[in-house]
Amino acid sequence: MAFIKRHNLHYVIAVVAGLLAALLGRFVFATSSFNDAGGLLMLCFLLLVPMALGAVTTHFTPVTASKSWRTVWGPFVTVVLFLFMALVFHLEGMICVLIISPLFLITSYIGSVLYLLFTDDKPNKDKTYTVAVFALLPFLLAPLEGQFAAPTTLRRVENTVLIQAPASVVWQQIIRVPPIQAQDLGSSLVDRIGFPRPVEATLTHEGVGGVRHATFERGVEFIETVDVWEPQQRLSFSIVPNTATIPPTTFDEHVTVGGRFFDVLRGTYELVPAGPGRTRLVLYSQQRLSTRINPYAGLWTDYVMSEIQRRILDVIRRRCEADASKAVATSRN
Fold first, then answer.
1. Taking 90 as the threshold, does the pLDDT of residue 326 lie above it?
2. Where are the transmembrane segments (predicted)?
């Protein structure tokens, strides 16, 4: 490491020390010992491990460094390196990295600030004891956290689109959704972070009891059993993921649909008259979240579900309006 100046070497050591603390937490909380309690979705990992990262990084950073480097830039660099390594070595998928990155960045900063607050004007011996507490606290509190079950919440995501077509046309486009091409959907962030695109929805027979098979890319399929059938008014169905068709590599285990942390339970289309030849189409779904960070995780699941529903509604709108235009042209001829 001769190419690194001796003064800068201390900064490298600080970042490496913080990185090692985070990696230790990543591997320990991923073991079977913590899996039943939530594993990497435990608060001790999501909040206390990055706080330890920030404290350790700051502890080993030279005292001559600026306060902004000790509290912001040092921990920031360490977190970015940790997330980068998680992706490169396939420790986490892109979805999980995006979800945890704000938590890690914020709490690493908090950890560094608290460390400086507790060690201000203290001798080196006290500083060592303090950083040791930060480093050990996630593992000491994890067994206690494991005694409490993760709460379960139900969330509803709703999207609406105004369609220049009568309800009779719209109804035919929602009970079955013919194959959707990638160009029909357009680009979206949800594609870039790894969520498969919707492909089509078939229906075994019309009426209550009919089964829709909603397929997505990469072998993802949902079995939707119709329990409300009100022609040109309302279509509602329960949703069960067909786990037999979903490859294990499609989703990260923490965001697997139908898994212990997240599931999509129901879907509903409602058709509301909006004037002559116009229909307001409402699509809403219900999801289950079972994590220790439901309010935060819900922001992400709401966004993803809303984006998926928005794009499906946009495809339906264009198809309905095209069908309505053809019907008008035919009637005039």
1. no
2. 40-60, 72-91, 97-117, 129-150
Helix locations, 89-214, DSSP H: 94-119, 124-145, 167-175, 182-185, 189-192
Specify which residues 281 forms β-bridges with: 161, 271
Report pLDDT digits (tens) over 128-165: 999 999 999 999 999 999 999 999 999 999 999 999 99
Residue 196 and residue 218 in contact, taking contact as beta carbons nearer than 8 Å: yes
Task: Evaluate whether 267 touches 237 at the Cβ level (below 8 Å).
Answer: yes
Prediction pTM value: 0.88
Separation CA 41–CA 294 (nearest Å) = 10
Domain positions in the chain are 6-145, 153-332
51 Cβ contact partners less than 8 Å away, ≥ 6 residues apart: 107, 108, 110, 111, 114, 134, 137
Asked if 260 contacts 290 with a C-beta cutoff of 8 angstroms, the reply is yes
pLDDT tens-digit profile of 89-134? 988 888 889 999 999 999 999 999 999 999 988 999 999 999 999 9
Tell me which fold the domain 153-332 belongs to: Alpha-D-Glucose-1,6-Bisphosphate; Chain A, domain 4 (3.30.530)
- pLDDT tops 70 at residue 179: yes
Dist. CA 227–CA 239, nearest whole Å: 11
Q: What is the dihedral of CA 39, 42, 44, 50, to 10 degrees?
A: 90
Which helix (H) or strand (E) segment holds residue 49: the answer is helix 49-60
Among candidates 24, 16, 58, which has minimal Cα distance to 44?
24
Under 8 Å between Cβ of 173 and 163 = no
Q: Tell me whether residue 179 is exposed, middle or buried, using C-beta atoms within 10 angstroms of its C-beta: 0 to 12, 13 to 18, 19 or more.
A: exposed
User: CA 145 from chain center: how many Å?
Assistant: 23
